[in-house]
Design brief:
Elements lengths: L4 E6 L13 E6 L12 E6 L2 E7 L14 H10 L4 E10 L9 E3 L2 E5 L24 H13 L4 E3 L2 E5 L7 H9 L4 E3 L2 H10 L4 E9 L12 H25 L26 H6 L5 H16 L1
Length: 303
């Protein structure tokens, strides 16, 4: 067992999370990635005994649209920083009347409607198929929901998040379709983020801040970006307090999670067939297995 190191990926209006009260030993570093440039520098710090690493998903100054975020580089960079778990905080729209703007939703399922984004670390030299039936870590989601409630938020636990490509918001017809599918909230960033976190053996949870009712209400106009940013700004302090409460609530020791070894049952390319280039590219994401493979080859060569 070891301690917790939470990677936080902050969305619209939440870049100041890296300046939250109680963050000690804070420093910003540039982290290189084999998959390109991460969205921002990583802010490292500690709240109590819990380490945190923070990335601004859309970059400093919100320069990347959801379609242009380098999700692979962000997850790879957090893995290189040694994070054990990833908590995503982002803006979401509501597809249910009872999920009101200002509420927090800890979604536990996803419908992926994104297109054209890099969805996997694997496929060139090493192939893996990770299980995604339950894409959210229930332990981390539970801690995050409890923390948000203690911070003063109204929290809904569970729900299906439909991830759309964007950057435009939904048409009314699309919004009504997603409601008919049984989706609860809508956003643009949790996919492929959750997929990549699973491939990197990082338990993932998303804490969404409801900013609007999407476009399904025919008595209202469509969603406006200014409206979303205003709600996010109003709730940013609660989000910051949620991280402080999360640090207080986490057990001193982190029990192992099944997600920590998700690749054991996912890799289909035998180690003997791994290309050196692919292994080097995955030195962080699959570092545990890359190191094991190197140790085996070293033992074989010395036998």
């Amino acid at each position: 067992m070891a301690g917790w190191h939470i990677g936080v990926i902050g969305g619209s209006g939440l870049y100041e999370l890296d300046e939250l009260d109680g963050l000690e030993e804070a420093q910003q570093i540039a982290v290189g990635s084999a998959f390109g440039e991460p969205s921002s520098r990583v802010t490292l710090g500690r709240i109590g005994q819990v380490r945190f690493s923070f990335i601004a998903r859309h970059g400093e100054g919100h320069k990347y649209s959801p379609s242009h975020v380098n999700y692979r580089a962000n997850i790879d960079a957090l893995k290189r920083c040694g994070v054990t778990d990833v908590l995503a905080i982002s803006a979401i729209g509501s597809l249910k009347e009872e999920l009101k703007p200002g509420m927090f939703v800890a979604a536990d399922q996803f419908i992926d409607r994104t297109v054209g984004r890099e969805r996997s670390f694997f496929g060139q030299g090493i192939v893996a198929h990770v299980a995604m039936a339950d894409p959210v870590c229930p332990r981390l989601a539970g801690f995050a929901a409890d923390a948000a409630k203690k911070a003063g938020a109204k929290v809904h636990r569970g729900g299906t998040y439909v991830a759309i490509e964007g950057p435009q918001f939904s048409t009314r017809a699309e919004s009504l379709l997603y409601r008919a599918w049984g989706a609860d909230v809508i956003g643009m960033t949790a996919m492929p983020e959750a997929r990549l976190a699973r491939e990197a053996e990082l338990p993932y949870a998303v804490l969404g801040m409801v900013t609007d009712y999407d476009a399904w209400r025919d008595t209202e106009g469509g969603v406006e970006a200014s409206q979303i940013l205003a709600v996010m700004k109003a709730n940013a302090e609660t989000a910051r307090k949620s991280l402080v409460e999360l640090a207080k609530a986490l057990p001193e020791e982190r029990e192992a999670s099944p997600i920590d070894t998700a690749l054991d049952a996912a890799l289909v390319t035998p180690r003997s067939a791994w290309t050196p280039q692919a292994a080097a590219r995955l030195d962080a994401v699959a570092g545990r297995l890359v190191r094991e493979g190197f140790a085996r080859r070293l033992r074989a060569s010395n036998a």
